[in-house]
Amino acid sequence: PHLGPLLNNLDKMARGRALSLAVLAVLVPQIFAGCTVSNIQCYADDANRILGHSNMNPAAGESNEWCAQLCHNNHLPIAGTENGIECYCGTSIRPDAKKLDISKCNMGCKGHDSEKCGGDWTISVFAVNCSGSPVPPPPPPPPALINPCLDASGPYAKLPFCNATLPIEARVKDAVSRMTMDEKISNLDTGAGSIVGLGLPPYNWWSEATHGVASGRSDTTVNGRTNFAFPITTGMSFNRSLWFVTGAQIGREARALMNRGDVYSTFWAPVINLAREPRWGRNIETPGEGDGPSHSVFFFSFFFRFLQPAGCKAGTVSRLACLATSILIPFVVEQTLT
Fold first, then answer.
1. Is 248 helix (H, G, I), strand (E, B) or coil?
2. Distance between CA 199 and CA 156 in Å, rounded?
3. Within the chain, what is the greatest distance between any pair of CA atoms?
4. Would residue 276 be called left, alpha or beta, if left means φ above 0 and alpha means ψ between -120 and 50 degrees?
5. Given a cut of 70, is residue 83 above it in pLDDT?
6. Is the pLDDT assigned to residue 114 strictly greater than 80?
7. DSSP letter for each residue of 43-89
8. Bridge partners, residue 89, by sequence
9. How many angstroms separate the CA atoms of 177 and 186, rounded?
10. What is the pLDDT of residues 314-330, one digit of tens each?
11. Looking at residue 17, what is its pLDDT?
12. How much of the chain is helix, strand and coil, in % rounded to 5?
């Protein structure tokens, strides 16, 4: 019996446009808010996790609002972002968690650098406050590797350093001539800075692939990475064919991940130390001592032969080399005992 007058009132409001959607949004913001984030607290994290247990973010990008939405979807009241890309959810923070100054959670969110999403073993924690329309997944960040020469409409494709018909020396000379002194200095380190004159963003030469591609962005929906046995195990098989195909598969996966924009094109692998000191904590990364240096030399040779072959010749097996990564860097680890 009370429904008739209510419908009449709503009808009058709609016909007279007494209230627009914009006004409704002001009057009841929680209906249109999605997820709002405030009062972020910074904590130190560790391997046992002070909030939740598993990274909940399946996307290649991150934002605090997106993490809040993921926790809301799982009916968990507290959210935390870490390492620029990870999202953790829970009902409470671990009692022994150490609170830090907010400046310690200073890593930009992937794809949303204006926001901060925790840091290296620091987590930005906040209450989940979501209602109304869900927060959409954030767009992925730009590809890890950008080749300015591939953009025919861009300003670089017609420059000499992009001209594949020129001798490599001429291309290198042209590229170096376009770098400022500051750019040259910043590119002497593993974490190379951007080069404006070449259209190149920052680049990190250090990626890991001793027993599978272990660096770069992770996509939980399409992983594309095989975790092979540690080199100490592969080495003790004395099976050169196994070394060969292991390197081949790592090369294929590295190239595929690079094409997808998830990894760089250089890998510090394999580790070429000999396993001579049992107290050294990274012996598992080497192929072992074997029958002396010759064992390691053969391992490196067969691992290299397919992961970074000499070239791509049409009509031969080495044509598959086109799938391999661009540069492989033998990695010598300083064996320091403390």
1. helix
2. 7
3. 94
4. alpha
5. yes
6. yes
7. EE--TT-SS-SS----SSS--HHHHHHHHHHTT-SEEEEETTTEEEE
8. 79
9. 15
10. 433 333 333 333 344 45
11. 41
12. 35, 15, 50
